[in-house]
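Thread: Newbie trying to understand structure tokens

Hi all, I'm a second-year student working on a class project, and my supervisor (Dr. K.) asked me to get a predicted structure for one chain before our next meeting. I've only ever worked with sequences, so writing a 3D structure as a token string is new to me. If someone could post the tokens and maybe explain what I'm looking at, I'd be very grateful. Here's the chain:
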Amino acid sequence: MKAYRPDIDALRALSVALVVIFHVFPKYLSGGFIGVDVFFVISGYLITSNIQRSITDNKFSLLSFYQNRARRLLPVLYAVIAVSTLIGLFYLTPKEYHSLVESGVLSLVYVGNTYFARRTDYFGGDNNGNPLLHLWSLSVEEQFYFIWPILLIVLLKYFSRYLLHICVFVVIAICVYIGEKSALSKESGSYFLLQYRVPELLLGAWAALLGIKTNNQQKLLSTILTLAGIAIILFTAFTLSKASVFPGINALWPCIGALLVIVSANNIYPGLLKAVTVKTIVWLGVLSYSIYLWHWPLLIYGKASGLLNSELSYALYFLILLGLSYASWKFIEQRYRFRVEKSPKVFFLYRLLPSTLLLAAVMSIPFEMGLQKKLWFSVWGNEAKHFYEYSVDREYIVAKSCHESGGSSAKAVYIDQCSIGADKDEKEFLLIGDSHGRHFTRFFNHLGAEAGKTGVVSTKTSCMPLLSEDNFNQDSDTDKNCYEKNIHWYEEVSKKDYKQVYLAAYWSGHLSNDSENLFTKHPGALKALSDGTAAEDIFYSRLEKTIQTILASGAIPVLVEQVPEFPYPVEKCVIGNIMARDKFENCTVNSVLLKNKSRLYLNAFEQIQKKYPQVKRFSINDILCSEGICSPILAGSFVYYNDDHLSYSGAEYIAKFFIKNGYELPF
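---
Reply by user tm_fold:
Sure, no problem. This is what the structure looks like when written as tokens:
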């Protein structure tokens, strides 16, 4: 029996404190997310120590190991998922509840991280407000432990100790390398997936296998290593941020700090050991699992309900979190953790399986039968219903082939399937661009029908409609496909007699002036070349080449300015304020802020117009902005889908407003 180590519970307390503070007050602890990495190291060390000891004593059973893990983790996990689902019936929009159900069901079988890897950015995005987002780390951990005990048995039985350590080192090195490469390339899901998190768990496991630790005679060395470890953890917590390359090499620093503490803290000077293992700190470490599981849904629902709105409310949040975590630990964790089952077979077949299936069904039925949507509409009223339905309208009025995803291969423009505007054979205008071009489809369709003009729309996600011979990177399918799509677009321009070609894109995403990092960074943003050519010069060069090509065809280029964007999920702000009985009109953005972010692309537009007077500009921003403030609400209707896209219904509503109020049609 291994002696209890209060210093490790103290390290757990530090880990969970970093994570909670980061989530509640991210401005004050920009890198607090590294608390999860410290958790991984602790877990790898303790679990591997136990497995190795059991294997050495010839007492290890794989089924018993999985049973003990399930008894340790699942009861509180199920309680958190169940409570989050129940509250979500009332406080999550139908779209958000659907996300909760999908991620929750997958988290029950420890693959929730794969859902978030496909759907969201940990530091922002549509799923950032999912009450179960934090369960990704449990999925990673358990995926590791489905594999690691089996590998460890093989390594210990058939490999020499030297070769075992070589294998572990090589795996860590490879995973750090691919994690660094993935993070540098902004690959979707790099934060969440097991292959990029293996080093953190394996470092702890490796320390256990090596048996590295100071002894009771090395007080000074132990104290120095422990203080250095704590300093490294705190330094990374304060200096890393969402802009850092992570995971990869940066994830190693807090892991090294954690290892230094683990191998030495038990033998530091008694006075210091007593100070870092005071009852309160150790108690937080004991409760850390429950604190971690409850803190995020409590925070999300606190914000959604409008209750977290003052210093006093946040003080109450922490008190409720501690009380709930203690109750969870005492009445759930302790009750099930040490319960004796007859056999693993009885546990898995007659307890775990039915419980999992029942909870999955209870979560899914309200969504599948439409009950949650009806309940949500009835609770929050017609205004919320109206705004919500506008925000989620994704009915595309042309064929799906008229818009391509970023990673798909480029296809030619489909004239007949992608017609918009008046019902005529002659095509007079072409609308091309990225998803910002797509959200204008119903706008130009309505205006075209009003003016008796027929056009064609063709768009591709994250693809600027600008020509260039160096418009792609051979290592990136998305950029190469965009390059090829531009060829198709401008072949279409050259061979048809269009009168206008409308270029619409997320211009300030591709060419951003957001020095304060207030807005979400676009993964396809232009970067300066190695020869010193600035991003704005690259943009202007491509824009000019495009304009020349369009003018040579006899068409008029029309540069469509992007709509106002918001530095936060504006759809959540509006719906959230309605649910919190607050003024949704407060969900605005200062137009000066937007002009600054858009300055580089607007300057390029102005230079192009001076050089080529035939070029036209089109903007609906005067409709959405007034007296220095831009709003997602137009004449009482919410017209946005997310922070920088119009909803399809919203685009059509703006077109009707445009016509009704006598604005000049852009044809």
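A couple of things are worth pointing out once you decode it. DSSP finds 26 helices and twelve strands in the chain. Residues 254 and 489 are 49 Å apart (CA to CA). Feel free to ask follow-ups in this thread.
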